[in-house]
Specification:
The protein has about 160 residues and is an alpha+beta fold. It has a single domain, classed as Nonspecific Lipid-transfer Protein, Chain A (2-Layer Sandwich). It is about 45% helix and about 20% strand. It has eight helices and five strands. Helix 3 crosses helix 6.
Length: about 160
């Protein structure tokens, strides 16, 4: 079974973040790109990942942080760029799909494979930035510490 088949067959509602991280860790960039080329599957994966951000947010760590984080996951082939925004304010985290008119404190731009590796705890944001796998516009210090505000599983 290919990685794309394994992801396509997932009932995301019943998969723990740890299981998802383990699955992503086992995928090659080629397999993730195969998933990304399937517009419906890519959409399901992105919605699930961003949907979990609110549940995995650690308000006790964020404290009084006020930040709008814009995520741009670059598409491939016929798939357009996906844009989501994470708004952290007064100990809460809300995620919306699409670009608002608000000015983000930081924007992170990366491909599908790098995005999945990052959010599943299988890659370091600092390493990804140094290797130019993620582009950051705005508050680089906030971007480098973003992972501490979320309970990111380790595979």
């Amino acid at each position: 079974m290919s990685g794309a088949d394994e992801i396509a067959g997932l009932d995301f509602a019943s998969v723990t973040p740890e299981e998802f991280a383990r699955i992503v860790k086992g995928l090659s960039a080629k397999e993730i790109n195969e998933i990304a080329r399937d517009a419906e599957l890519r959409g399901r994966v992105l919605k699930e990942v961003f949907g979990r951000m609110e549940r995995q947010f650690k308000p006790e760590v964020a404290g009084q942080l006020e930040a709008l984080i814009r995520w741009k996951v670059t598409g491939q082939g016929d798939n357009p760029e996906a844009v989501y925004e994470t708004h952290i304010s007064k100990g809460t985290c809300t995620v919306t799909e699409g670009r608002s008119d608000a000015e983000p404190r930081v924007t992170l731009i990366m491909g599908d494979a790098d995005f999945l590796k990052l959010v599943s705890g299988n890659s370091s944001p600092v390493t990804m930035f140094m290797m130019r796998k993620v582009k950051i516009a705005g508050d680089v210090a906030l971007a480098s510490g973003l992972t501490r505000y979320f309970d990111i599983p380790k595979a």
